[in-house]
């Protein structure tokens, strides 16, 4: 019944019939021309064996498997048949040849010009279409335009020579390029051609209809888009020309069979001429395709979306004045060898001897935080890789004296994927390639990895291993509550990876404040000794809020060095405005390494000015030996870069001593203000900062650094948003809906402070007493990494082979963020190649950008025009000289009602595999269905597809009815859970 219905829809006749079975058949046909004067000639044969569902796909002439005798016999048979019926005009006599016996079987005559006539024209030189017309006018075969006497006595030239003058020269191959999707059962696709670029060159012929950029492919006609025919003197060369032509085509917006055709013509059986009509059905490797990246179209789609609707990151932010001045990139001689640096020394000495070298070094060692903590603190971690890579070679060649570049970890990992749509691993690899000589430093949150929760031990170990292999040399490991037990897994993993391990002590309170005696010198020395026993190579004083006063840091540095004998690295923030004084005090006390940021990226909530501190130490025995000229050049570059991120800067004009009250980490300060802005509380920032201090007191005066600082911030925002007082928070009679992060903190999921949490508040938060101290990792079962890999690949829409270890590490840290990032990349490609102004602010007509999508391959893109059409913005680009149009639904525009979309990976959803029309619906809601039963049928471009149940189950919803038009991935049926 289905076959009759399909035949009726296609041909207006539902008759079906059977033919003789030839098990291994080749399809060969002879081109015939007959005139009205009794002359019939052949133009030799064509091979049409490569076909699918009896639809020819690739044709060639002459047939490669015929010898001269077979060819003559075949053509003579065709001539006899056509002469017997007094056939006139063009026609094709079709045969099946048994590949085993060589026997021919006549199957039919096609009394018309065939789609594949092009290959015959190219090898014989006869214009079959013109001959058809000339014969209708009375033209005689055997008389050509060159013949003398042509046209006399009412006899016209047909343009077709006599049989003995018809010869073939060379070989020709024709491929039918269609809008069918080979990866989806060759289902026809339709829609708008966003890109159409055809091939050209010697020996290439194109026969096309309405194929051009912007053309609309409808579901009402055949899926054939264009025929491309290649001619050459030899069969091998004609295939090579065809291969080149197919690779030159660019078809975007709808699916096509281009890659499938490439596989067909390059297959050894095709080259040998041994294929049969079952070739496609029995050769699964024809459907194995190299993934087409389509990078240009994806990037244009993203650029158009930002241009029309803005980047979601800019919602509620003030648009800066455009265009921006181009940052001044200092010149550097890339042909000059990269000088030796700290990384080379680490490779030479190993971690233990390197730490001893630090102790023996008179010059103070300096870390530049510009590429990580500085922009995290100044403009919410938004600096993009595109702004880091240009300056990286300059660092390597002009600032090799730097101790390290802090460029990874912390909040950058999350923000890169979540907001910047960048791969943090790619950033690390690209920077490493450009800076091979300076240590790369990252911030690792102990058992929290680079996340905000505790992870299973094997997850942290796996992540550290990947980071070390990817190029991180120095891991600054800390715990948000200074609990060394919670740091041990990370420390051990770093040591096992052979990297430098810097155990960080988070500084809080005031070393000399008797009212906060729990954070005294004994407390910090005790932590340092635990870290020493754990095997760290370096101690770090992590002054995340910038509240370690000069006197305090001097005492702390001396005590730590005397008690442990380990090198000390001091990190602070300049929120107070006097952090440089603390750094210089630390240096004077014998601190081995200190952090700072380049001039243009320093101060306020970032690190103190590295250049100024280096200048202050110049000429002393602790002179770091950094070139002031090079520092100034690098700073000038970042001064230009920083303008790009103006909308993300917090409204801070100067340092503030208020930080000694609220003790908010510099890296959190801008992020918390951003959260307050998003919640509509920016005008109440003074209240938020006071609430932050109040919450810290309520929580027992804890160490505040990611992730505990985030918990304090969450609670502070909740207090202000709900107009609560500290008394109400602790009042057992006053109901408070504590944020989930607060509940998690009091459960001990982030660890425990040395004196525990306040018992009264703990009872209110947890509804029970405080739990006994435990290490969260001890209660987390090891993660099955391979099962997690499968799950992450499915969630991100990636083939399992693309979910490599580094992508798996991302997914283990941030499952949803990583999945969303991969989905974004599938849709828009690698947007990290876009210039920052384009990424955040889009383009204006006349703007032009150069996008280097890989080494040596650059796309030159300019925006031409934007015009409106029924809620759609038609964005006209020019890319590498070719016009490209992208349609974008304008945000807020009224659009037609849309169907639900089937969720990728949801086994309860049955989605449309292709665009088309619903023909039949065989199920209803509530119906019990067995595996294999037909659910519905879908028709497009004369092809009907039956969708069957993959398992037993009950239908919950049916969302379509016969006659409905659907798009690919529209939700059709929902199973009952």
Structure description:
Helix content is 35%, strand content 20%. It is α+β, with helices and mostly antiparallel strands. The chain folds into 4 domains: 22-146 and 155-168, D-amino Acid Aminotransferase, Chain A, domain 1, CATH 3.30.470.20; 170-292, D-amino Acid Aminotransferase, Chain A, domain 1 (2-Layer Sandwich); 311-828, Aldolase class I (TIM Barrel, Alpha-Beta Barrel); 909-975, RNA polymerase II/Efflux pump adaptor protein, barrel-sandwich hybrid domain (OB fold (Dihydrolipoamide Acetyltransferase, E2P)), CATH 2.40.50.100. It has an 8-stranded antiparallel beta sheet, with helices on both faces. It is elongated and about 120 Å long. The two termini are 33 Å apart. Mean pLDDT is 92; it is low at 148-154. One of its GO terms (biological process) is gluconeogenesis. Residues 901-976 form the Lipoyl-binding domain. Keywords: ATP-binding, Biotin, Ligase, Lyase, Nucleotide-binding, Pyruvate. Residues 364-632 form the Pyruvate carboxyltransferase domain.
Summarize this structure briefly:
The chain has 32 helices and 36 strands. The protein is α+β, with helices and mostly antiparallel strands and 977 residues long.
For the largest sheet, list the strands in their spatial order.
5-4-1-2-3-8-15-13
Return the CATH topology of the largest domain. Answer: TIM Barrel
Reported CATH architecture of the largest domain: Alpha-Beta Barrel
Q: How many domains comprise the coordinates? A: 4
**The first-level CATH class name of the largest domain:** Alpha Beta
Sketch the major β-sheet.
Answer: 8 strands, antiparallel
Spatial extent as radius of gyration: 37 Å
């Amino acid at each position: 019944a289905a076959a009759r219905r399909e035949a009726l829809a296609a041909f207006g006749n539902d008759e079906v019939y059977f033919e003789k079975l030839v098990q291994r058949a080749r399809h060969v046909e002879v081109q015939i021309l007959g005139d009205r004067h009794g002359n019939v000639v052949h133009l030799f044969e064509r091979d049409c064996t490569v076909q699918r569902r009896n639809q020819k796909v690739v044709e060639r002439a002459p047939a490669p498997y015929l010898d001269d005798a077979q060819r003559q016999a075949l053509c003579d048979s065709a001539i006899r048949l056509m002469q017997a019926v007094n056939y006139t005009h063009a026609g094709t006599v079709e045969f099946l040849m048994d590949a085993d016996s060589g026997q021919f079987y006549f199957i039919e005559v096609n009394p018309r010009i065939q789609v594949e006539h092009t290959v015959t024209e190219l090898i014989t030189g006869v214009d079959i279409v013109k001959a058809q017309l000339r014969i209708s006018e009375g033209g005689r075969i055997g008389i050509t335009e060159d013949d003398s006497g042509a046209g006399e006595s009412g006899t016209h030239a047909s343009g077709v020579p006599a049989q003995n003058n018809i010869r073939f020269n060379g070989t020709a191959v024709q491929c039918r390029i269609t809008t069918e999707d080979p990866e989806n059962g060759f289902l026809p696709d339709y829609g708008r051609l966003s890109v159409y670029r055809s091939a050209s060159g010697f020996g290439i012929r194109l026969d096309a209809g309405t194929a051009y950029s912007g053309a609309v492919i409808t579901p009402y006609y055949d899926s054939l888009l264009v025929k491309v025919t290649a001619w050459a003197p030899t069969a091998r060369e004609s295939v090579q020309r065809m291969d080149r032509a197919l690779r030159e085509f660019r078809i975007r917006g709808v699916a096509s069979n281009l890659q499938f055709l490439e596989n067909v013509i390059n297959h050894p059986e095709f080259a040998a001429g041994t294929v049969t009509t079952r070739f496609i059905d029995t050769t699964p490797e024809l459907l194995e395709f190299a993934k087409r990246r389509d990078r240009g179209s994806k990037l244009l789609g993203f650029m158009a979306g930002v241009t029309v609707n803005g980047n979601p990151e800019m919602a509620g932010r003030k648009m800066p004045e455009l265009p921006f001045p181009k940052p001044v990139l200092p010149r550097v001689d890339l042909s000059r060898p990269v000088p030796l640096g700290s990384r080379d020394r680490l490779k030479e000495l190993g971690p233990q001897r390197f730490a001893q070298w630090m102790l023996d070094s008179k010059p103070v060692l300096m870390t530049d935080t510009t590429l990580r903590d500085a922009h995290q603190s100044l403009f919410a971690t938004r600096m993009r890789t595109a702004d880091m890579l240009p300056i990286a070679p300059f660092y390597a060649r002009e600032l090799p004296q730097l101790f390290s570049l802090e460029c990874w970890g912390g909040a950058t990992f999350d923000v890169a994927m979540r907001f910047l749509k960048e791969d943090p691993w790619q950033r690390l690899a690209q920077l490493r390639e450009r800076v091979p000589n300076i240590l790369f430093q990252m911030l690792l949150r102990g058992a929290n990895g680079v996340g905000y929760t505790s992870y299973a031990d094997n997850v942290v170990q796996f992540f550290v291993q990947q980071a070390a292999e990817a190029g991180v040399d120095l891991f600054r490991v800390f715990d948000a509550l200074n609990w060394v037990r919670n740091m041990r897994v990370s420390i051990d993993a770093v040591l096992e990876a052979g990297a430098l391990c810097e155990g960080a002590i988070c500084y809080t309170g005031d070393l000399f404040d008797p009212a906060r005696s729990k954070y005294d010198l004994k407390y910090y020395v005790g932590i340092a000794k635990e870290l020493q026993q754990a095997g760290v190579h370096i101690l770090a004083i992590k002054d995340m809020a910038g509240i370690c006063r000069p006197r305090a840091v001097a005492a702390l540095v001396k005590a730590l060095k005397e008690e442990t004998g380990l090198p000390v690295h001091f990190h602070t923030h300049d929120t107070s405005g006097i952090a440089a004084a603390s750094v210089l005090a630390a240096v004077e006390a014998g601190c081995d390494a200190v952090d700072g940021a380049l001039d243009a990226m320093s101060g306020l909530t970032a690190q103190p000015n590295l250049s100024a501190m280096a200048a202050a130490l110049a000429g002393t025995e602790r002179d770091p030996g950094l070139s002031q000229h090079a520092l100034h050049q690098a700073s000038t570059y970042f001064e230009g870069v920083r303008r790009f991120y103006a909308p993300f800067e917090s409204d801070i004009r100067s340092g503030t001593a208020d930080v000694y009250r609220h003790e908010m980490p510099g890296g959190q300060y801008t992020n918390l203000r951003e959260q307050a802005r998003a919640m509509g509380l920016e005008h109440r920032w003074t209240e938020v900062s006071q609430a932050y201090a109040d919450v810290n007191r309520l929580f027992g005066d804890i160490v505040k650094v990611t992730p505990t600082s985030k918990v304090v911030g969450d609670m502070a925002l909740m207090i202000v948003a709900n107009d609560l007082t500290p008394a109400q928070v602790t009042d057992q009679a006053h109901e408070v809906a504590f944020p989930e992060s607060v509940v998690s903190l009091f459960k001990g999921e982030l660890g425990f402070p040395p004196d525990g949490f306040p018992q009264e508040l703990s009872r209110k938060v947890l509804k029970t007493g405080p739990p006994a101290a435990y290490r969260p990792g001890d209660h987390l079962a090891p993660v099955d990494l391979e099962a997690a890999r499968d799950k992450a690949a499915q969630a991100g829409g990636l083939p399992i082979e693309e979910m490599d270890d580094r992508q798996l590490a991302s997914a283990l840290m941030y499952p949803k963020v990583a999945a969303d990032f991969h989905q974004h990349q599938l849709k828009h490609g690698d947007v990290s190649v876009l210039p920052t102004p384009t990424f955040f602010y889009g383009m204006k007509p006349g703007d032009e950008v150069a996008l280097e999508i890989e080494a040596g391959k650059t796309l030159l893109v300019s925006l031409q025009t934007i015009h409106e059409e029924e809620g759609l913005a038609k964005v006209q680009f020019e890319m590498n000289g070719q016009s490209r149009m992208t349609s974008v639904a304008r945000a807020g525009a009224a659009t037609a009602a849309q169907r639900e979309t089937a969720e990728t990976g949801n086994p309860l959803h049955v989605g449309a595999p292709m665009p088309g029309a619903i023909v039949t619906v065989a199920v209803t809601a509530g119906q019990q269905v067995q595996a294999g039963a037909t659910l519905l049928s879908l028709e497009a471009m004369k092809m009907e597809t039956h969708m069957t149940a993959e398992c037993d189950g009950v239908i919950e919803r049916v969302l379509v009815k016969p006659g409905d038009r659907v798009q690919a991935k529209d939700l059709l049926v929902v199973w009952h859970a």
